[in-house]
Structures are given as C-alpha cells and as structure tokens.
Amino acid sequence: MTAIYLIGLREGLEITLVVSILVAFLVKSDRRPLLRLVWAGVALAAVISVGFAVLLRVGVATLSSTHQELFEAIASFVAVAFVTWMIFWMRRMARHMGRELRGKMEGAIQVGPAAVAGVAFLAVIREGLETSVLFYAAAQGAADSVRPLIGITLGLLTAVVLGWLLYISAVRINLSTFFTWTGALLVLVAAGIFKYGFHDLQESNVLGGLNHHAFDVTSAFPPSAWYAELLRGMFNFTPAPSVIETVAWLAYGIPVLVLFLWPARTRQPAATTPATTAS
User: Are residues 37 and 117 in contact, defined by beta-carbon separation less than 8 angstroms?
Assistant: First the structure.
C-alpha cells in the first residue's frame, strides 16, 4: 500500500498542478466562464482513466493462469517505461510546464470551446492512464484488493489537498526537491515492478531458473515480519529472489537512479568577443 500511495501522491500532484495552472490562467485573465469547459475535460479524463483501470482488472481475470502471468509481465514492463519517461520528463519540463500550458490554452481559446476542454482533457488523460497502469502493476501480488485501493485513494486525496493549498498559497513546497525525492523513490519502486515482470515470465515458463536463487535471507526477513512486508510492498523485495530477478533489479535500478540523480547540465552563455561587441 505504501508504494501505491506514493504513486497516487506523485501522479495526483502532477495532475493537480496541471489543472491549477489552467484554472489560475483563466481566472487571472478574467475568463471564468471557460472554467466549466476545463472541469468537463478533467472529468472526462478521470472517468476514462478509472474505466481503463477497471477494464484491466476485469479483463485479466478472464484469462487463463498462464496468459495472466504473461499479461502481468507485459503490464509491468509498460509501467516501468511510463515511470522512467515520466520522472525524466518532469525533471526536464517542470520549469517550463506552466508557460507551455498557458500557451496551449491561449491558442485553444482562439479555436473554440471544444479546444479548451480538449487541452484540459489531454493534459490530464496522459497522467490518468499512467496512474492506471502503474496502479495495476504495483498491485500485483497484493494479499487483497482493498489495500491497494486504499493506498491509491489516500495518495490522490493527499495530492488534491496539497494542490489546493498550493493554489491558494496557504503552503509553500519546493516542488523541485519534492519531485526529485519522489522520483528517486519511484525509480526503486519501478525496479521492483521490473523485477516482478521477470518473475511473471518465469512463472509462465517463458524463462527458466525460477528456483535458482541468488541468495536466501528468509531467516533474517521472515514473511510475517512488518519490516519484511514493508520492503516487499514498497520495493518488491523478496528474501529469496531468483538470479534473473536480482539481475533485472540491479540492471534497471542502479543505472536509472544514477542518471536521474546526476546533476543536469546548465548551458553557459557564449563568451562575447570584442569584435562581436563592436558589431
């Protein structure tokens, strides 16, 4: 539930920030009548995202056991691709996201009402579908279906409250620091999902070596211990992983985490020569 809460918080805050930017732009430019179009686009995106999540759960339940394992493996890899793209995109675009959204909304206003709703819809549906896939992938192997729902609901509600407080300037949060720390944690969560994808491939007999363990620390991390359950739920840690699972976790987790935390290059202004200055 902890990992799913983090997913809901991170994705939910991105959605909330996008919506608050659009709302603030319309309010400050004295275009309040257009707010209903923005909320219509947001509502449609939310309904489709929830429907997609339900479709995933119901559709997979009708598959055979082997096909379920294969589908879950594919869903895990798709979710990891989403997470990786999302955290690097957010790190690169966070400073310019507001300007880009305001520009799109200004252009949509000139086109017509449908375009205004479309900007809000497209801005939210991407995050919504990502959240649905991530939720499905992270909830695999959960003991029940209630705790994942509680985790994603609490995460989204926390994001909405934080977004509202930021909008009314009741709180101040260093968003760059927030997205850096949550991004680093999501890399570790994604590494666990990536590892679980290979576990599903082994379960479906696409890959062998399920019983070839890289190590076994079950005595130190008994399944009933709270800390073992926390590590399993957060990072998909298992006390006796296979060699393939361990290699998959390390092959994704270490290089992606290093690249994500590596300081971004800043462009230096070009040196001005005397001749250029004279010109």
Answer: yes
Q: What is the distance between the alpha carbons of residues 142 and 91, in angstroms, rounded to a whole number?
A: 31
- Domain extent for 122: 2-263
Q: What is the pLDDT at residue 144? A: 61
Q: Which amino acid is at 148?
A: P
CA angle 58/59/63 to nearest 5° reads 115
Tell me the pLDDT of the chain averaged across its residues. 80
Which residues does 202 contact at the CB level (< 8 Å), separation at least 6?
208, 209, 210, 242, 244, 245
Structural domains counted in the chain: 1
Q: How confident is the model at residue 106 (pLDDT cuts 50, 70, 90)?
A: confident
Residues sharing a CB contact under 8 Å with residue 256, sequence separation 6 or more, in sequence order: 84, 187, 190, 191
Count of other CB atoms within 10 angstroms of residue 3? 26
SS3 assignment, position 271: coil
Pairwise pLDDT comparison (224 vs 80), residue with the higher score: 80
d(CA 246, CA 194): 10
The answer, as to whether pTM is greater than 0.85, is no
- Checking if the pLDDT of 85 tops 50, the result is yes
Q: Choose among 152, 148, 149, 183: nearest CA to 259.
A: 183
In a domain, 276, yes or no: no
Query: Does a structural domain hold residue 105?
Result: yes
26 with 38: CB under 8 angstroms? yes
Q: Is residue 270 part of a domain?
A: no
**59 within a domain of the structure (yes/no):** yes
